[in-house]
Amino acid sequence: MASSVKHFCTICEYDGISNTAVTWCTECEVFFCGDCEKTHSKSGLSKHHKTMSADNYKRLPTFMQEIRSQCRDHNTMNEFYCSFHACPCCVQCVTDKHKKCQDMKPLSDTLHQVKSSASVQLFEKDLKNVKENLDTAIMYLKTRISTINIQKTKAIEEISYMRKSINDNLNKLEQNILNDLESKHSKLRANMATILQQMEQGSSQIDQMQSQFTNLIHHATELQMYIGLKEIEKTAKYIGDLERTEHFIEKNLEVNISSALQSFLQDVKSFGDININTTSSTLRLKTGRKDQAQHLVTEVPGIEQIKPSLLTRLTSPKDMKLNIWACHILPDSRIVILDNNNKQLVLFSNDGIFIRNVVTFTKNPCDVCFVRNYTVAVTLRAANQIALVDVEKNKIIQTIKLSHECYGVSSDGKTLAITSAGSQCTTVNLNDMSHTILEGMQGVGPIVLFQGNIYGINYHENKVSCYRITGEHLWTYQNPDVAKPRGLSLDKNGFVYIASNGNNSIMVVSPDGRTCKRILSGSDGIKDPWQININRETGIMIVSSRKSDDDSVTDYETAFVYKM
């Protein structure tokens, strides 16, 4: 986007004067007002400099305005172009930062007739395609957001419907048992009330006879007395008969809540699960040019050009017997390894010199990868956990629990991908810590997450496979040259490097998964290679290997560092 900032003459500003700039010198990289521009154009040193109007300068995109011919670090002219890092550099930069970069070219050669190259002439069409792709992708994402909003609404309705159904059913069951309680209580109470009434009548007759017993003896006839005594006997016998029957057995009301209902309260721990299921994207974008040479883009070397050269070997204290299960080169070129013998994360310098033990784990660590800042992720297989470790603070800052064992791990700074050395792979969003389980990645152990794809190796079937981050299979490479693969890594061009343990080799597979080449073997000192990692910025590679040729020695005691 063009800039709307008002620019002032750089020379005049040195004197505290704000004169509006009218010209920009592309070589001096300063603004001039009308008067200063006249002086600049007459000077013998600058009269042939190329200039443009300040208005035209404003029309350049902001990011292009920030590009300078002079090195920002050393204030000298950039004279070279590093194809590996895709940046211009001055002579001092070459000495300080690009000693090991092999593809250095004079900047003048790189820029020669760049504006008239075929690529520039086709860039307008490319920009149009990119804009159309962006518009299509934006519309797609807006549609997806609308879709998941609808899905959320439907999910809420389903949850509410289930809750209402449960409530209605419970209300019905409650009313049924209350009706049953009322019925049985009424029947039991009525029976007891009838017996109570009969006994109260008998008690009243006895009270009457007791109060008039003397009168009965003196005044009643023999017949009246005889009949009265019979009535008393009958009453006494009635009471005795009641005692011998079930009328005085205590009948109590009690309620037994359904065991299924009780188990519902105890066993049901959640209303359900909310899952994020992934499917293949329906987004279709226009493909870029394939038949035109894009000269401004750094050419990707062929597989035959990959030839590593040995730089150094890890040096550890004599009493430290390493069993290297994983190794990783940090952005600052320091090296971390996982020592399975001592369950430790160990830090080495970029020259391979031991620095310190970072963290000791309670469970055996399995794999390690860089996440962001000073944080690395370490899988703890038996614990079903990933530990996030701050290498500078020497401590575990967070643990992530998964539903399956944790074997291989890789990250792009935003997402963690973790395999179970079986058929499961889980991705973890590092922003909200949400988990997505990917099915179908059979037998994948160590993995690498690169440019939206997941690369993994299957040790038992001697193959390397590539999947989309959604789990969709893209390609599989299987060849006798890849034998018992243990570790893998990718360089910046997408070449897949494999530690082929079964034949003491480091193999490289092309980005399309069609061709393969051996770049290191036993003759180079490689013995039972276990792990491999490449720093994509510097092109430095580390390979863990057994130091001894004695087959009885099982520890992978050292690692070799190479420049690609």
Could you explain how this protein is built, in words?
This protein is of the alpha+beta class. Helices cover 30% and strands 27% of the residues. The strands form 8 sheets. It has a 4-stranded antiparallel beta sheet, with no helix packed on it. It has a 4-stranded antiparallel beta sheet with strand order 8-9-10-11, with no helix packed on it. The protein has a 4-stranded antiparallel beta sheet with strand order 12-13-14-15, with no helix packed on it. Strand 26 and strand 27 form a beta hairpin. It starts with 9 loop residues before the first helix and ends with a strand.
Oligomeric grouping of the chains: single chain
Distance between the termini: 38 Å
Beta strand % = 25-35%
What summary fits the major beta sheet?
4 strands, antiparallel
Helix tally? Answer: 10
Shape: elongated
State the strand order across the main sheet: 7-30-29-28
Helical content band: 25-40%
Low-confidence stretches: 290-295, 548-556
Task: Look at the structure and give the mean pLDDT.
Answer: 84
Given helix and strand content, the structural type is alpha+beta
Number of strands: 30
Supply Rg: 43 Å
